[in-house]
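Quick board copy: two proteins, each given as sequence then tokens.
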Amino acid sequence: MSEPTVTRPSQPLTVETILKESRPDPPQRVASGWLAALRLAVGWVFLWAFADKLFGLGYSTPTERSWLNGGSPTRGFLSNVDVGPFAGFFRDLAGNPVVDWLFMLGLLGIGVAVVSGVALRIAAASGTLMMVLMWVAEWHPARFTGAGEPTGSTDPLLSYHLIYALALIVFAVTYAGDRFGLGRWWAQLPFVRRNASILR
């Protein structure tokens, strides 16, 4: 029986050399930094939409139509859907309290998860579903409304909804919450480790 071969490190093991080896190389570090910036920006989009619809900050939602003042966060968007094969379905959902709650909880949950960098797989799945449904409601392949007016669609396939969905998926598969987020801490929690394929 032969003795095991011992390989000595090329440099002495010190705190500095261990830290140097554990750090990503500069290009990867720069890329992960920009990915984190994109993650924070996309998360902000969801949080801002939630806050504007909740309080009526005067951008897309006037104060008098805020959710806190009795307005519906889905009525304005869904009641104006007039193109595509599902237009009637979406109009019927406009102002439904259950749909309002699901939409607002989705905006808040996705926004908090993406900004904090935790539960990115759940955020990606739910955010992609939300964005695809909004894309279908706007129905970008249509060039004209039911009244014959231009829809404003500039591309029959892609819209910002699908770009956000792709970004959410990229955040989840690249562990983008680890940089400038709580992703590493989240991944160490026992219940997350037991269910990493869903909760990571």
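And the next:
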Amino acid sequence: MSRQDQAYAIIHASYVNITDEPAPAGGQIVVYIGPEHAQTDRELEILVLEFAESGREALIFHAMSLGPKWRRYREENPDGWR
């Protein structure tokens, strides 16, 4: 999956939430669910390791077509940021 598709999904995410997944020191894992690009309804799941207010660069470490785990997570946690 291209970095361009990953960036598009993050920028145009329909769902964003901080997960309960364990993260390295001082970090948090954020899930973004959004379209692969403007000409499709296919959604991607993007997991990003973010370090709030630390100045450290965020790291995309997981990107793939939306699967059952994160689809269910969105259904069970509907109060995402977007």
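Board note added afterward: The chain has two helices and four strands.
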